[in-house]
Amino acid sequence: MRLLIGQTGAPTAVVNASLRGFLEAAEGHEVLALRGGPDGLVDGRLTPVTLADVPPAWTHRGGSWLGAGRRAVTGDDLDAAVATLAEHRVDGVALIGGNGTMALLRALTERAEQAGLPLCTAGIPKTVDNDLVGVDHCPGFGSAARYLTRVVPDLARDHAAMRAIEPVRVVETLGRSVGWLALAATWHREDPAHAPHLVLLPEVPFDRADFLRQVDDALHAHGRAFVVTSEGAARELTDEPFEAANHTRILLGGVSRRLAALVTAELGVAARGEVLGMVQRSAGALAGDVDRREATEAGRHAARLLADGRSGLMVGLHRVGTGPYTAGYDPVPLAEVAGRTRPVPAPWRTTDPADLGDFHDWLTPLIA
């Protein structure tokens, strides 16, 4: 078989592990690399690739060996992509990405079928936002979460030292529509004295008066208020393009600074807003072994699906049993995943980190 492997959307710290896993399992098949994300698919940027072309060191680095990108794909784009696949005699396509990528892959599957092109398709899950349906958690999320559990407590310690001149600090994580990473930033089991006092999620409607009251309560109880917020929380305070099609407009962040300004204006105390930004998804040096291993396995399973002639599926990821943490991988129909977003479950939608013990239990094996 002639297989194509590509990535769309943003990189993660372990996305290159999925690429190597795919190439390992695709041994004996001819593989082409899609370079440059959806633009490369439309423009025909396909080049031969072997496992030897992707050094193992890349699995410990951020960025994407394949290149990445986003595009609001049109019907004409799909026709061009199908023509490219036919021209290169591609039998199977695997795309690494999130819910937008799975929507693109499903559309490509349907367009190829309409054009009479025999084509197998498989999705490899990847997103730091952890908002994919069909997985317990998503490759890429564990490393971003691990980064946050390492650096946010240090930011809290720094804040405790500086409370006299900076009583309030607001730290902003990624997460335009879901709060999984903001919740991860509340993990504090190795340093309970420096746990965040408040967390803001997109799933919990922002209440200005309640937010100010909670900050004021923390100031009186602790002499400082340390807040974690998702970039998509309190979105009414910003003009960020949260609803841009396929995330094709850049989010610059900044809700933490707007919240800090609100605190200063209303409570009369100094406040700082910190935007952690892209380092959360790119810090290969702090990527987790569990996450790297699972990203590799997701790539391997995708290659096997294509080699077996299966199509229209994404590699799922679930927890096996109730004993020591083990991951299992079962395919999920793209129709159940494409374009859908998995929010934080209702029991974990809270502004109080003290209510998140069950979430921290769920997270702990992923960041070890």
Automatic annotation (TrEMBL):
Cofactor(s) recorded in Swiss-Prot or TrEMBL: Mg(2+)
Domain of life: Bacteria
Any one Pfam family match given in the protein's UniProt record, by short name: PFK
Pathway: Carbohydrate degradation; glycolysis; D-glyceraldehyde 3-phosphate and glycerone phosphate from D-glucose: step 3/4
GO MF, one annotated term: diphosphate-fructose-6-phosphate 1-phosphotransferase activity
Phosphofructokinase domain location: 3-305
Family note: Belongs to the phosphofructokinase type A (PFKA) family.
Annotated protein name in UniProt: Diphosphate--fructose-6-phosphate 1-phosphotransferase
